[in-house]
Amino acid sequence: MTEAEVEIEVPFHDVDSMGVAWHGHYVRYLEIARCAMLETIDYNYPQMKESGYAWPVIDMRIRYPQPLYFQQKVRVIAKLDEWENRLKVSYEIRDAETAKRLTRAYTVQVAIDMKNGEMMYASPDILFYKLGIEP
Q1: 87: buried, middle or exposed (CB in 10 Å: 19+, 13-18, 0-12)?
Q2: Which pLDDT score is estimated for 134?
Q3: Which CATH number is 123's domain given?
């Protein structure tokens, strides 16, 4: 339904002495793609805050079958898979030149009402509005 793709070149400051990207930096690459995806529905983090909801990541899984290397250009694809009770976003990192899949991941986020700090058990109406869906 909602998807975005960004291209990233693995920078020197993200790699070890062997030129391999440290696994913790993948989270940043996913975040860049997730923000691009949220921009497509005009509900990125500033709009979330303005609507009165925080959406913290409560679960994340990343599989690293292939490494990323210094100066490698990769495409990071973020796709919204679930939205009714939570945001579940799936990701793929692919080599930009060959399209070979290098990594898969997902994140789960839940809405927190910023007025009282309580977790919502269903996504707020603003998300459905942004997605063009009747709540």
Answers
A1: buried
A2: 84
A3: 3.10.129.10
CB 53 within 8 A of CB 111: yes
pLDDT tens for each residue of 20-33:
999 999 999 999 99
The answer to whether 34 and 107 are in contact (CB under 8 A) is: yes
- Angstrom distance (rounded) from CA 5 to CA 37: 8
Tally of domains within the chain: 1
pTM metric for this prediction: 0.93
Task: Give the number of other CB atoms < 10 A from CB of residue 51.
Answer: 18
Q: CB-based burial of residue 71 (10 Å sphere; 0-12 exposed, 13-18 middle, 19+ buried)?
A: exposed
pLDDT band at 1 (very low <50, low <70, confident <90, very high): confident
Supply the range of the domain harboring residue 77: 2-131
